[in-house]
UniProtKB/TrEMBL annotation:
Coiled-coil segments: none
Keyword Transport: no
Protein known as: Aspartic proteinase Asp1
Keywords assigned by UniProt, alphabetized: Aspartyl protease, Hydrolase, Protease, Repeat, Signal
Signal peptide: 1-23
Length: 443
């Protein structure tokens, strides 16, 4: 279920009719506190599990239903629809860690405004007001999910321990496909955090549960943290760039950038950049990819590292005189890569070797930046999980900007055995801004 590329191509079909009813959660107390600026109730924190290699995905555990049951969902800022495999009944479901979700007269109707959102850009038509809302999503790696929209309870815990239980809409997927080269185990589904109205983040914001802000910190060593709300967003030290007003299918589009390798311009400019946590690797358009490979190849000449064509872990791998144990063994042989945003003065996104190399099971260093034209991404350049390593990435939909800063994601606050955020010396809940950049500074 984890997709190596989550860049989404929306395809929606209207299927059979099914009558259902539901009601929204009433959360006026929480909404009033957020409106008054009470940040103590503003953030919901999830522990992240996973890695880029060998798993190829990061996921969070989300409890859904009454009584609540746990599900593992890929965290995905590249798509807006959250869905999980379900017994509706299931036509084609894949091996997953938990039992299928079972809908219980909680279907979203075709007339619901969220239905138009999940069916965009196709025309939204309802033959009857009580028709169910059907969806089909296809991802750039040829994975897909077909199902219907339902609503259920999502018990969530704020950082101070307060629990809230909103009723949210998500996809109940009864027919799934994954890219042929993927192997199980799969997750239970996708946690959509993109820009559309169907996004869990957008729904929580409209219910007054939290600010429309999401951030993740993914460790190069594996695992990390995800949070909704702005309580842990640093008040300083973050590099910010506006979200582009030119939308690319409801994705987090940062505008265009110029590619630099080792401090030297590649001469490739005007690269449309999208941040996508649902993509395991980073994808450059054909021209940028070819120039990148050429410049890296020239840079490592004479450094006693050689092509490892026999290693098929990724398209390009290198070997040394003996197997590498970690990226630390090879990082000094490679140079930083940088994207300089053309409409934001002095805004640069740097990828050190740890943010574009993996060490394969054969002990070779492999390039985790791939040719996007080979997966039909055309001119879009996706920045994926590998390039987010040990960075705090903040998607601030309230202020329409995206930010990042170096961070030791292993030192982020952890959730203790009681399910409560244990900040220790790293954060505080006195209403002031916690300076997490100082607390989680890279060692």
């Amino acid at each position: 279920m984890h997709s190596t590329i989550s860049f989404i191509i929306p395809l929606i079909y209207l299927l059979t009719a099914f009558e259902g009813c539901y009601s929204d959660a009433n959360l006026p107390g929480i909404a009033q506190k957020l409106a008054s600026g009470d940040r103590a109730l503003s953030s919901i924190v999830f522990q992240v599990t996973g890695n880029v290699y060998p798993k190829g995905y990061y996921y969070v555990t989300v409890n859904i239903g009454d009584p609540p049951k746990p599900y593992w969902l890929d965290l995905d800022t590249g798509s807006d629809l959250t869905w999980l495999q379900c017994d509706a009944p299931c036509t084609k479901c894949l091996p997953a860690p938990h039992k299928l979700y079972k809908p219980n007269k909680n279907l979203v109707t075709c007339m619901d405004p969220l239905c138009a959102s999940v069916q965009w850009p196709e025309p939204h038509k309802c033959e009857s007001p009580n028709d169910q809302c059907d969806y089909e999503v296809q991802y750039a790696d040829y994975g897909s999910s077909l199902g219907l929209l339902v609503k259920d309870w999502f018990p969530l815990q704020y950082a101070n321990g307060t629990v809230v239980k909103p009723r949210l809409a998500f996809g109940c997927g009864y027919e799934q496909e994954v890219e042929a080269s993927m192997d199980p185990p799969y997750t239970d589904g996708i946690l959509g955090l993109g820009l559309g109205k169907a996004s869990i983040l957008r729904q929580l914001n409209e219910l007054g549960v939290t600010k429309n802000v999401v951030a993740h910190c993914l460790s190069a060593q594996g695992d990390g943290l995800l949070f909704f709300g702005d309580e842990f967003v640093p008040s300083s030290g973050v590099i910010w760039t506006p979200m582009s007003t030119t939308k690319i299918d409801k994705h987090y589009y940062l505008g265009t950038a110029e590619l630099y390798v080792g401090g030297k311009t590649s001469g490739v400019k005007g690269l449309p950049i999208v941040f996508d946590s649902g993509s395991t690797y980073t994808y450059f358009s054909a021209q940028a990819y070819k120039k990148l490979v050429s410049m890296i190849t020239n840079d490592i000449k004479g450094k006693k590292i050689y092509s490892a064509n026999e290693d098929k872990s990724l398209p390009i791998c290198w070997k040394g005189s003996k197997p590498f144990k970690s990226v630390q063994d090879v990082k000094n042989l490679f140079t930083p890569i940088m994207l300089s945003f053309e409409k934001s003065k002095n805004v640069r996104f740097q990828m050190d070797p740890e943010a574009y190399l993996i060490i394969s099971k054969y002990g070779n260093a492999c390039l985790g930046i791939l040719n996007g034209s080979e997966v039909d991404l055309e001119s879009v350049n996706l920045i994926g999980d590998i390039s987010f390593h040990d960075k705090l990435i903040v998607y601030d939909n309230e202020k329409q900007k995206i930010g990042w800063a170096p961070a030791n994601c292993n030192k982020f606050p952890i959730i203790n055995n009681d399910g409560v955020l244990d900040c220790g010396r790293y954060c505080k809940h006195d209403g002031s801004d916690p300076d997490i950049l100082q607390a989680y500074s890279v060692a």
